[in-house]
Structures are given as structure tokens and as C-alpha cells.
Amino acid sequence: MCGRYTLAVSAEELLAEFGIEAPQFEPRYNVAPQHDVPVIGRNAQGKARFALLRWGLVPGWARSPRDVKGTINARAETLLERPSFREPFLHRRCLVVADGFYEWSRVGAVRQPWRFHLRSGRPFAFAGLWDSWSAEDGEKLFSCAIVTTRANPVVAPVHDRMPVILDRAARDQWLDPATETATLERLLTPLDGASLVGHAVSTLVNSVANDSPDCIEPVPVPGTIAGGPVDD
To answer: Is 94 a catalytic residue?
Structure first.
């Protein structure tokens, strides 16, 4: 699963990567569920644009957002089987923008966080789903989930799942409403391990209250994890 991630790049870097004017925002080193997060979707005119959505998808049919649990991630293998995700997968797809993500391993008695990011250091896009929920007074909540898949060889020593990271060509296909379901499913595979690196980071990340550059600094880890070292 993906329960935390980072977006510590500038709006200018996002513009360079995605070709879309990005909103101004503070760098985030410990993005957590229920935070409002930048995503890219298509408006009614078919143009890609940024928006802020709540992380933790609330289906439009839900009685209340409080009744919905376990929707920060959507497993690629069961998107068509889950009522919460089926319609968003078929009709409401987005890109969740990030520059790294965290997973955890056990090192002795410690729950040890690891940060994974592109070797290039560029921002990237998770495959995302979105939905809107309306309160009785008409107020709308727009929310999203991150699609996950099996881990690649870089992440696998730490966790058996990872977010789906889409390359530039796949992003366009993911957002295109005309893309066939079979094609969409083929996009939901692990990123090539050669593109990704990872390193242990401070246990500061374990608390959502901590959100500073110290969260992403590499730290030494005593002992080893199953599968050996993650970074090269």
C-alpha cells in the first residue's frame, strides 16, 4: 500500500514536467490520508488541469464520508470488482502528483520508514481515481485514491505493494476517456526497477505531525532487511 508520500518540488518543476501551470503550495515531506493533495485531471473541455482533492476516496453513493474506510489505495487487480472504485476507474481517472513515497519495514522492534523516488529526482504521477460526494446542503467533497500494484525488485525487500507510477505516454492514456479498459489495465504494472531508488529515512515520518526536510534525509539502519540493501 501507499500510506504516505512526498511532494517537495516547486511549481516551476511541476510545470516543466507536466506542461501545466501548477498552483503555488508549500513543499510537503509527509503527505498523509485526509490531506488535500494536488492532482491532474481533465475538465469538461478535455484540457488537463491541476485541482486539490482530499486523499481518501468517498464514493458519490456513500451516506457519509465517516462511513467510508480503506479507500486511500485501490488495488489494480480488483478495480472492476470493488464498488467504491469501479465507476471511478471506468470514468473518473486522475494523476496524483508526487516526488517520492514511503513504505515501512521492521528492523528489530522499530517500524523503519523508507523513501523511494526516481533516480532522476523528477516529480512523477501515480495512477489515481477520483469521485465527488454531495452533502445534504449541496456542498461537494472531491476526493481521490492511489492505484497500487505488486512491488518491483527495488521496493519488494520492504513491502509487497507499491503505487502505480505512470510514464509520460501512459499519463495521456490514463486521462483519455476514450482509452479502452483492457489498455488501462495494461498500464497498471510496477515501474521498471532501474528507474527507482530507495533509502531509509528518519522515524520522524511515523508521525503525521512531522512535515519537514528532515523527513526525507537518508539515515543509516542497523542490520538488514529481507532482500538486502535497497539503494545502490
So the answer is: no
Domain architecture of the chain: domains with CATH: 5-216 (3.90.1680.10)
Catalytic residue among 26, 77, 87, 103: 103
Q: What is the pLDDT of residues 176-230, one digit of tens each?
A: 999 999 999 999 999 999 999 999 999 999 999 999 999 999 998 765 443 334 4
Residue 5 dihedral angles phi and psi, to the nearest 5°: -155, 180
Whole-prediction pTM value?
Answer: 0.93
Query: Which residues, in sequence order, are bridge partners of residue 130?
Result: 144
Q: Which residue do the cell numbers 483519455 mark?
A: 176
Q: Rounded to whole angstroms, how far apart are CA atoms 156 and 158?
A: 5
Among 213, 188, 159, smallest CA distance to 85 is for 188
Contact 65, 141 (CB under 8 A): yes
Catalytic choice (2, 94, 144, 215): 2
Q: What is the pLDDT of residues 111-126, one digit of tens each?
A: 899 999 999 999 999 9
